[in-house]
Design brief:
- By secondary structure, the protein is α+β, with helices and mostly antiparallel strands.
- The protein folds into two domains: about 100 residues; about 130 residues, 2-Layer Sandwich (Alpha-Beta Plaits), CATH 3.30.70.
- The chain contains seven helices and twelve strands.
- The longest helix is centred in the middle third of the chain and has 30 residues.
- The protein is elongated.
- It starts with 5 loop residues before the first strand and ends in a 10-residue tail after the last strand.
Length: about 270
């Protein structure tokens, strides 16, 4: 046992019929499973070490889970999780948290994650703000043609007015978009906004049977905003935003990083 290499863990799944999954994971190591009763961890050989976050490794970590997701319900494990050996996986993960893992697999069964980003078109949103706010439009027009050096403070004030108008408009658009999509999802996670033109950055946990309905709703929203807002829509994905198991080998608690009951430490 001492000479056995460590195991890098990608996710937990229902036990498959075969121990080898037929493709390679991090560092081109074959992806296999470590089974315990009717559960299994998807793993590959690895030194017992700390993995630095890098594009290559994180993309491979996610890619493996995406491949497995095509055939099984998956519970993603946090990037960089390494066990000393397969026995630790069976005893300290699968057996110790058997009931919790079964419960999470049941909740994630036939569910997929769909990611939605909504971004304003810069020219159109500023035109819309000026059209909707006569005071802002008059203030902007009053500065037109005047030297920047002489109107520095007024231009700062104009920038603040635009920022406030964007904040107000974003709140309205976020509420509208989420209101249209939330009824089609089991859970919603709103992630941080990235950049001043982003309106929505959210993940939706959706039953596979409603995926086509969700697709159609995105198209309806895209038609409604008619170029004012552009939608970037990705999926189906594993439930990365709803399950991310953080395994603590010397602790009997199972942790997760999601803001809901399925992202917990185990």
């Amino acid at each position: 046992m001492r000479n056995e290499p460590g195991r890098y863990i990608y996710c937990v799944i229902p036990r498959p019929p075969l121990l080898s999954l037929g493709f390679a994971g991090i560092d081109d190591k074959p992806v296999t499973v470590a089974p315990f009763e009717n559960l299994a961890a998807v793993v590959s050989e690895s030194p017992v070490r700390r993995y630095q976050v890098s594009r290559e490794y994180t993309l491979k970590h996610e890619w493996v889970i995406e491949q497995v997701m095509q055939y099984y319900t998956v519970l993603p494990v946090r990037f960089g999780t390494v066990a000393a050996n397969e026995e630790d996986i069976r005893v300290k993960l699968l057996r110790r948290h058997f009931g919790s893992l079964h419960g999470m697999l049941k909740r994630m069964d036939n569910k997929v994650e769909l990611g939605v980003k909504a971004l304003w078109d810069r020219e159109r949103i500023f035109a819309a703000l000026l059209e909707d706010d006569p005071e802002l439009r008059l203030f902007r027009d009053a500065l037109a043609g005047k030297p920047e050096a002489e109107t520095h403070y007024e231009r700062v004030q104009l920038g603040q007015m635009v920022e406030q108008a964007l904040t107000t408009r974003r709140s309205h658009d976020v509420a509208h978009i989420i209101e249209k999509l939330r009824p089609l999802a089991q859970q919603v996670r709103e992630n941080p906004i990235l950049g001043d033109m982003m309106v929505v950055n959210a993940a939706f946990l959706v039953d596979k049977r409603r995926e086509s309905v969700f697709d159609a709703r995105i198209q309806t929203l895209d038609d409604e905003y008619a170029g004012l807002i552009h939608f970037r829509y990705v999926g189906p994905l594993p439930p990365f935003n709803f399950v991310s198991l953080k395994v603590t080998w010397d602790n009997e608690e199972l942790a997760s990083e999601a803001p809901d009951e399925d992202r917990r430490v185990i």
